[in-house]
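Quarterly update, task 2.4: pyridoxal-5'-phosphate-bound model.
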Amino acid sequence: MTETHADQQRTNDPVRSPDRFLVFGKPTIEQDEIREVVASMESGWLGTGPKVHQFENDFAAQAGVPNAVAVSSCTAALHLSMLAAGLEPGDEVITTPMTFCASVNAILHAGLTPKLVDVDRRTGCIDAAQLEAAVGPRTRAVLPVHYAGRACDMDALLAVKERHGLAMIEDCAHAIETTYKGRRAGTFGDFGCFSFYATKNITTGEGGMVIAQSEEQLARIKVLALHGMSKDAWKRYSDEGYKHYQCVELGFKYNMMDIQAAIGLHQLPRVVRWWERRQEIWQRYDAAFADTPLETPAPPEPDTIHAYHLYTLLVDEAACGISRDQFLTAMTRENIGVGVHYLSIPEHPYYQERFGWRPEDTPAAMEIGRRTLSLPLSPGLSDADVDDVIAAVKKVLG
Ligand SMILES: Cc1ncc(COP(=O)(O)O)c(C=O)c1O
C-alpha cells in the first residue's frame, strides 16, 4: 500500500495544534482566588496584612507546626534562614548540585561558602555517605533539596547533622506534600523553606514560607523580612491607630503581599486533591513508558510520600536514537511544553569561574542534568492532555 499525501500530512502534523500548546507547569487558578484577589484590591490593603497573617496560620496548621512566616520567595526564605541560623561569613554550607541556582545563590547572599556534594544517581537527592566524607573544619550547615518532591534520606542526613553539629536548612520548594516515615519535609531541619512560584504545587504567583524548630529564630526571620522593623510593624496603618515602629536590625524587603496570600489561601486547601491528580498522571506516565528505552523516575521509597512535583525522564541517546536536547525540541514541535530540572550547578559559567567547579566533579548530577527532561504534571491537565503528552513522547521516540 502506498502512502497517500493525507497520511504524510497526518504523520507530520503535531500531536497538538499550536493554538493548544500545552504550557509546562501551568498553575491551576480557580474562581475563589480570583474573587479573593479582587476583594484584596477593593479593600485597599494590598501589602502585608490580614490575609498574609491568615495564610501563615493556615500553612502552619497544615504543616502541624505552631508558626510559619510568609516571605516573597523560597530564595528569600533560604537566605533569611541562613542568617537566622547565626552562620558567620566564611562558614561552609554543603548543598546539592542537582537543584535550581537559587539554593546556591542564597548561600552566597548570606555571605557563606557553598560546597557541593553529589547526589544519588537514582533519586537525585544528596548522597549522605558523600556528605559525611565532605564535612570539613569550616562546615557549619547542610542544605538538602527534596528533589522533584522525593524525600531525601533523612535518617542518614540527620545522623551526619548530629555527628557534626551542623545546622540544616531544608529546601522544600518541591516538597509541600512530602513526608518521610510519617514526618513532613521541612520539620527535620532547623528550617524548612517552601516556594509558591507559579509552577509549584501551590502558587501565590511569587512567594515563599519558612517554618523553623526555634520560635526565636522564626521571629527573627519575620523581622528580617521587613526591613528589620520591630514585630507587627505591618499593622502600623491599621484602624487601631498609628503605631511607631523601630528598626532593630538591618533587614530586607522580603515580605509577602496580601494580594499574593489571597491566592495562596484558596490554593492551600486543594493540596491533597491536586496531589492525588498528579499521582494519577504520574502512574499513567510510568505505565505508558515502561516498554520504552526511557528511564522513568525511581518509585517512591517505602514509608515516604513523594510530592510528585516533577516527572523527570532520562534520555539515553544510544538507546533512544535521539539526544536529550533533540527530544526537547521535538516535544516542543509537538506543542508540548517540557522542562529541564536541572543542568547540574557546575555546568553554569558563573560558578565555574568563581569556584572552579567542574561538572565531572559531581558525576551523578552531571549525568542527570545532561539526560533529564520533565513532562507536564499540573493537576489541571485533562485525560486528553495526558494522552497527548504520551502520544508525543512515543512519536518522538519513533
Ligand atoms: C529546588 C528549588 N529551590 C529554590 C527555588 C527558589 O524558589 P523561588 O522561586 O520561590 O525563590 C526553586 C524554584 O524554582 C527550586 O526549584
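Highlight for this quarter: The chain has a mean pLDDT of 95.
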